Amino acid sequence: MKTYDVAIIGAGPAGMTAAIYACRAGKSTALFEKNFPGGQMVNAHIIDNYPAESEIGGFDLAQKMFEQVSAAGAEFINEEVTAVKSGDIVEITTARGVYTAKAAVIAAGTVRSRLNIPGEDRLDGRGVSWCATCDGALYRGKDVAIAGGGNSAVSEAIYLAALCKSVHIIHRRGEYRAESSLVQKLRSLPNIVEHLGCVPVEIVGKDKVEGVILDKNGEKFTLPVDGFFVAIGGKPDQKLIAGAEKDASGYVKTDGEMRTSLPKIFAAGDNISKEVRQIVTACADGAIAALSASKLD
Q1: How many domains does the structure of the chain reveal?
Q2: Of the candidates 230, 255, 286, which is a domain's last residue?
Q3: Buried b / exposed e across 251-260, counting CB within 10 Å, b at 16+?
């Protein structure tokens, strides 16, 4: 089996940008992704803060990026990476075998966080969802709730509002973490109901979601809904960055050239320790990581 110059794990915006830059540097490049290219970007109904695209669907932007990756010459390997081992030669393990590379860029993004409340696991797929774009159409004309207060939650609530009778957005804080432009759009929609300062404590229903129990300042009440969406962010996949130095939240630390503490292992995108996690910053991370990795012999 050939040894690639650069192996990239994750085909979100960071990984795809890294693949483009590695190929342009003349390096043989493998891009690993277990799902469709695009990462969490695919789930975004509308993206309106990416340069040169005033408004574009997440799937469409992902497809355009992947077309550029393919044209650049990267080899797309549609397999799940289960482990990455650093050394003189980096080993990338999947269910089908072990691949090798001179350097690797970990751009695996994050795994969606769970609320870990009663009913969440039992009703998963029976009214509980982690993707409004994927499942929103199932609740056309119905009442739904979504938990979260960041850009993803607010964007998905806006998307659901075009389909559902009512959308209840639940956030534990008194104000959103999302961009003000998104919050303004959210509050302009007549079928959005805000529940700030509330915490979901249980999802109820026998065979499907029938409601969610909320706790506001110690007082509990049941909100009847047909669907419940979870959009509270994510955490990095620890198995892919095992052994690397991390911050207190588990995100991998990198230097200005996107090097990790592990030899020949670079990282980029949402799985690294940083303040801003946006598509445009992920792309920048990917470009830097690929150029840095391409300098290795």
Answers
A1: 2
A2: 230
A3: bbbbeeebbb
**118 and 226 fall within a common domain:** yes
Q: Give the domain CATH number at 189.
A: 3.50.50.60
Three-state DSSP at 157 gives helix
CA distance 259 to 188: 44
Task: Record the tokens describing residue 93, joined without a space.
Answer: 């393990």
Question: Would you call 164 helix, strand, or coil by DSSP?
Answer: coil
Which are the catalytic amino acids?
A: 131, 134-135
Boundaries of domain holding 139: 114-230
pLDDT in tens, 277-288: 899 999 999 999
Percent of all residues in the chain with a pLDDT value above 90, rounded to a whole number: 83
Same domain for 278 and 140? no
> What are 199-258's pLDDT values in tens digits?
999 999 999 999 999 999 999 999 999 999 999 988 888 888 889 999 998 999 999 999
| Alpha-helix runs per DSSP H in 9-139 | 13-24, 58-72, 132-135
Q: For residue 13, give the nearest of 3, 5, 51, 4 by alpha carbon.
A: 51
Start-end of H helices in 149-251: 151-161, 180-187
